[in-house]
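Predict structure. Chain length: 391.
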Amino acid sequence: MMRVAIALINANILGGTTKFTSDLCEMLGRFDHELALCSWKKPNEHSFEGLQKIEKIYTPSWVIDQITRANQGKGFMWNKLLASGSSIRRCIKDFNPDLIISADLEPGVFSSVPNNVFKIHYCHFPTEAVVRKNTYPFLLFRVPYWHQHYKQLPRLDYTVCNSHYTEQVARVLWGPYLKRDSLKKIYPTIDVSKFQVKKDKINQLCYVGRLDSHKGIEHVIESYIDLYDECKCGLKIVGAISQNVGNISYAKQIIKKVDELKGQSYPIEIKMNVLYDEIIDTLVSSKILLTYNPMEHFGIVPVEAQAAGCVPIVADGGGQQETVLHNVTGFRVSSPNEFSKYVKQLVADNSLFQRMSEKGKHWASNFSFEEIELQWNNLLLEIDEKKRTRI
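Prediction complete.
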């Protein structure tokens, strides 16, 4: 048994990375590891279940909290390091962990972690590949940030990637800085049992995820309009809105478009910031999931859809090439223009839909708690052995 601290940005953000953190907490708890959580905010009643169960919660000091509140919307990367570093320092002082896992933060947060504490960075995607607004003022502003970032990479005991796709990118960008053989891959997991609900499928398409301009929701809506006259199906959009200014503006556009279509009598609805039970119900009752993000690093929703017997149609790129088996458990498309073709096939041929739906349920078991938790526990056993040799 080890004392494990898990650090994330905010326990109350409803999204894939927070869901991953919740599942990680539940998995490690099954092996009786003692857990603590370092977060910008304490979990509330709407947080994922695995985060609510943790008793030891560490948040930033009052001073740091006030500073980050005052700078909200400005210098987000620096705010993350400042707030998370504060909560981690408080955790180290009180909890004295053997290991700290950065669940959705950048390597720079480990600057406040002493050498005798093991460090795992869970890499959803290397920071350098997702940073935007690369104007000269922003680049200069981040120089000290990148200095800290690359200073911490060699201190990591393990960098665990969420897909083979992410691992390849991390190897190119970070390989020269990481310890030898420290780069690993462990997929995010899902609780398959939660999707094994006996409920009749309705003639409905769905989109589940953040209202983010990189998720291709506008393509989903456009395709739905094109195929509606032939398929007469509904569309349900279930998602969350992040506090990013650009995403808020984008979400307003999507909500306005949905309202216009509802006014034209299309059977379409949109629900924001829902509980996880609503997401499960949406996937269980819908026949087809549509999403288009060719750069999706892993994509937990298509896996959840398959577990629910909802056939996913996704972009042929990123981690989705590992999670959706084309023409077996779902379809991968090279363009949103292909959405209509595959939706019409599935709606017209019920035996095809049933076959792919059942195969998807079977395939999703590869991402179950039982499969993934063993990989995490084996890694922690490896760390525990190294810890003994250090002593």
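Summary: Residues 369-390 form the longest helix (22 residues).
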